[in-house]
Amino acid sequence: MRITSTDRLISWLILPVIPSWVTPNQVTLLRFFLIPFVVYLLMMEEFRRGAILFGLAALTDALDGAMARYRNQITEWGKIYDPLADKLLVGTAVGVLVTKYVSEYLAAAIIFVEVLLIVNAFYKNQAEGKVIQAVWAGKLKMILQSSAILLLLVSLIFFIPSLIAAVTGLLYLSLLFALISLLVYRSI
């Protein structure tokens, strides 16, 4: 895998403080572990804590990828479960927040496409023995979705309803890149 500029930044800022015994798969497991706590905080409308925990969980996505590439620790398990953890994190946050504060239809469309991506990856892995790796469109989709959710949380924390239009735009853009990901994976 190619090392990205984000990987370089993470390797310079964060990786030096992470012990070598911590693996990328452990970071992915941390993201899975954090998801129920993020959902709980969002459902309880503890938006400040929820934003911090969601931001931390979203950051682990970039962190585990950079660790895997820099430390040459890419595994088949990570290729499958890292994207699943991303989709669960974003999908649950969209289900809780976007449904209530933006649009039920947009939330349903995002979750539907995320499920299609998961089913496609599972099918390709089981039926064809292929592991679907992230492509640029999927990575950009995750960045847009995470940014939109964090911006929505900022809107809720600081009572800035005018940010909802920007959140909506980011989410529609992320949906476009999710559909591009489906086309790249040749599943539709």
* Total domains: 1
The total of beta strands comes to 0
How large a portion of the residues is in β-strands, by DSSP E?
Answer: under 5%
Instruction: State the distance separating the first and last CA atoms.
Output: 26 Å
Question: What is the SS-derived class?
Answer: mainly alpha
Helical segment count: 7
Arithmetic mean pLDDT: 92
> Which fold does the CATH topology refer to?
Four Helix Bundle (Hemerythrin (Met), subunit A)
Q: Which word captures the global form?
A: globular
Question: pLDDT below 50 for ≥5 consecutive residues: which ranges?
Answer: none
The CATH class, by name, is Mainly Alpha
> What gyration radius follows from the Cα positions, in whole Å?
16 Å
**What CATH architecture would you give?**
Up-down Bundle
Q: Provide the succession of SSEs.
A: HHHHHHH
Keywords:
7 helices, 188 residues, mainly alpha, 0% strand
Protein model, in words:
There is one protein chain. With 188 residues, the chain is mostly helical. It has a single domain, classed as CDP-alcohol phosphotransferase transmembrane (TM) domain (Four Helix Bundle (Hemerythrin (Met), subunit A), Up-down Bundle), CATH 1.20.120. It starts with a helix and ends with a helix.
Secondary-structure map with pairings?
Blueprint: H1 5-13, H2 24-43, H3 47-70, H4 76-101, H5 104-128, H6 136-158, H7 163-184
In short:
The protein is mainly alpha-helical and 188 residues long. Helix content is 79%, strand content 0%.
